[in-house]
Amino acid sequence: MAKSVIRTAWRVSGETLRYLSISQRTSPNAPVYLSVPSSTTTLIQRRSLFVLPFGLDVGILGVAAYFYTKLPKPESNNVSSIFGPESGSKESEKHPDRIVKCIAHRGAGLDAPENTMQAFKYCVAMECNFVEMDVRASRDGQLVLLHDQGLERLTGTDIADVRIMDWDSIKDINVGVTHPNRQHYKDVTLCLLDDAIDYLLANKVKMIIDVKGEDKQVINGILRVFSSNPILHEYAVVTTFNPFILYQIRKKDPNIVGAISYRPYCFSALNYDAENGPTNPRFAGRLAMQAFVRFLDVIHSALWRWTARWCSVSAVLLHKDIVSPREVEYWRGLGIRVAGWCVNRPVEKLYWRAVLRAPYLANTLMGEPEIEKKVMQHDEDSEPERPIRCMELEKKLSSVFYVVLL
Prior knowledge:
The chain is of the alpha/beta class. Helix content is 44%, strand content 13%.
């Protein structure tokens, strides 16, 4: 008798605990039906809360947003007009002279003062028909050709930021006083983007416009330049390290041919090369800030390819020390051109021409087979814009290149 009572009490207590555990998991706002067991109510409540596995709904939403916001590609004619035929294609075999090999980085900034009209005239005199330039905005909205944020490196002055200065206050400053060939370039001044474009278009020179800065003045200025010069769509590429700047530009004008520039540690270090790695920390005296931008480098290295496809770029401009044949083939498989920077040594130029078969940005036109032949064929007096150099140095550069070539 006692055992029977204990067994019955144990069953009742077990059912009570089971009911309480189910009740705790039932929403207090859920409707109560006396004829429906509480376990059924709990089952219905669970299904209404979790339709998909955890995180899957967020992933689907993210993929949908990516394809919905992805920019359209520019006209294919614009891309081929600027970059010419892809190396190894049938068209390149028919028109080998149209293959782009060398792009004068900052207008061949080692040969002539960078980003200046003198540099572009030098490129035209040397028959280099593709240049790269950097542009940023002054305080009054003028688009100035300038790579650095300030003028310390070029002028030796303490002007650290041109964004706080008007064009009239900087337009007459000599930016060639620290150049290796400064004795041959007197009174070199900054150049406006409009003036450079007028000169380069008149001489049928293609160009890469590297957008520096992240302000609306630069974005609106680039759009204005393309709007006032529609032919520029077939002559110019807009590139930037910041994909969101390129996205804003191409969203308003999808026919602009876009490119993404990339190198490791671009947020945390001013310089990078394969031998030394990142050098010159941007925030050396602020450890917390340096750690934060280093974290941004990690995020950027994981996402930059994705953002390049999101902007529907037609080219990627990569630091030469991170480019391999596999990297080139990856982008070619997506129909995207690859160019490297800064490829300055003759042996590096040979590697890009013969192995990678891709264009490159060079700070000097010395060591270019086509240029070297023209230097040998033309008299020094017939090219006034060409920097006067020691002939022995030119012969050394030429001999080094052709020895490696053979």
